[in-house]
Amino acid sequence: MKAIWKRELTSLFHNVIAWLFLGVTLFLFGLYFFVYNLSYGYPYIAYSLSAISFIFLITVPVLTMRVLAEERRARTDQLLLTSPVSVGKIVFGKFLALATIYTISVLVICIAPVVLLLFGEIPVLETYVAIFGFWLYGLACIAIGEFVSSLTESQVISAVITFALLFGGYMMQSITGLISSSGNLLTRILGCYDLLSPLEDLMSGSFSLTAVVYYLSLIGLCLFLTTQVIQKRRWTVSRRKISLSVFSVGTVAAGMAIVVGLNAGMAMLPETWTSFDVTDQKLYSITDDTREYLDSLDQDVTIYVLSAKDDADDILKKTLTNYEEGSDHITVTYIDPTVNPNFAAQYTDQSVSANSLFVVSGDRSTVISYDDIYEYGTDSSGYYSTVTGYDGEGQITSALQYVTREDMPVFYELTGHDETEISGDFLDVLTKANIELESLDLLQNDAVPADCAALIINGPQSDLSEDDYNKIAAYLEAGGSLFATLDYAAYDQLDRYQKLLADYGISSPGGIVADLDHSYYYQNPYYLLPYVASTDVTGDLTGYSSVFAPFMVGLQVSDDDTYTYTTILSTSDSAVAKTHYSQATSYEAEEGDVEGSFIGGLSLTTGQGGQIYVFGATLMFTDAANDIVSGRNAELFSGVVNGLLAEEDSAQTVVIPVKDYSVSTLTVSANAVLIYGLLWGMLIPIVLIITGIVIWARRRRL
Prior knowledge:
single chain; 702 residues; 8-stranded mixed sheet; 4-stranded mixed sheet; 26 helices; Gldg family protein; membrane
């Protein structure tokens, strides 16, 4: 077999075809690499590979058309057929030679991610899984081409038939979709020859064993069929009385049955066994928090998807599969709106888009609009909308909790003192936790309502009245919970607000904290990146640079042992409370300033079991601050919300943050774009093609 491989490989490189194959493949890849990855800064090589997957419709027929057909036409195949080398080794040796040519181009492509790493972060594992899928897809196309080449002695016929077969496999998704959007027996049969879907799985951030087995089994089947075709001719040469069908019917049927059975068996396995999430953001996986919730789920829930299964959003479909496999109480059902156009009217009078979800348990139901599954933003030009986040898991987990519990906790947000409203990402946290947020004006109420699970006082600009203070104090003394923040611009004038906190041993020197340790701030010492302690509410946020707390008021606690305080955020020992910040001339300590380490956020449990959380920076609970640290402020807020809830409510509340949809774009200099673009798109392909032409021309003269 090694001799066959070397002979065939040498023959290919002595001909212009191999060089042309390499040159064209790398030219097209270089072109899209230049546009997508270098010019636009996309960190995903899969974009470029997906764009050139059509090239095999042209290059593979040309590469494989003569591998067996030419030898049959020239009758040189008789030497191989009568040689002591087995037919299987002959077929595999020739396939290895073709695969070697193709693999050389893939190895060159493997260098591209290394180049991109020079300009920023890329999803390395996801990238190389995509390249691996591209490699398998190309090998499968080559195996099909070799099989077709064994059927005829005409190179032209071989190339045309190979093109037709590859084109059919490339377009099979569209063909089956035209036949039936909901699927039927015919589309399932035709779908067995869908060459593109397994590639899309591997290129979308999922390492699919089903896709790998499909390509490997297809390669094996094609080589097996090629062997059977040649085997018939071999016996015709050596023993003309042997029937040509001896080696075909039974053996071929058995071989195809094995391949079909293998792939059918893979399809029956749970997706959690066969598909592995390799995205940096873990888009297809569900978190441990959700898995723990699913383990505790004891009510049956049906999730209806307003889409035919074949047309459903791929990421959402994989997410739903994880839910269905994560709990015996969850059933996912796909509803084709063309077959059942009135289905949505059972649950909502609003118009809903395709791929929207209806989560139903008993008499309770809720609708998740497809528009809420993804978050959108504008690109750098400001003109085009792009997907920035995926919230499938967060929305589905929230909906499951909503339909399986009867009473929803209520948080009240104090108003009447120019407080900052909870909004944006932080309001989304409360919504996903199925917490009702109500406004509370104590002028209109004799007391904090009895159903108040927690009271929010978010950066008041004017002071509490004596009556307000008494009502809130009574609520806390009765075991109520509080979330409070301090605004640097007003806190010094809020005597009763200060007194309310002082009742629980919390005080402040006022002003704004400037941290002089470079590890604790972003851009300037007032933009703090406080240390996040390991607590029940911080989760994985522990450490430096996790949350952003601009213009923070430093907190201090009393030394007595009345309460036990848990520090959540803290500054370094080099911090300074700039008590007269408006007249400050330096971030360094000046007259009247207070030096030392300060608390940025803390919690305590009152004697009656209430939970109090106090943070020194109102601005940290705004979208602007949250965006600086990619949503981690909202993640901290989610933990705090869970801590504010009573134990029975907390056990039923899981809030999953939005997952980033993609890695940040790369910043590639104009010179780098030009250099690497010319290298991949022009220089390497041209050198390869010229080399092939020169070698071919020299051999023509010999």
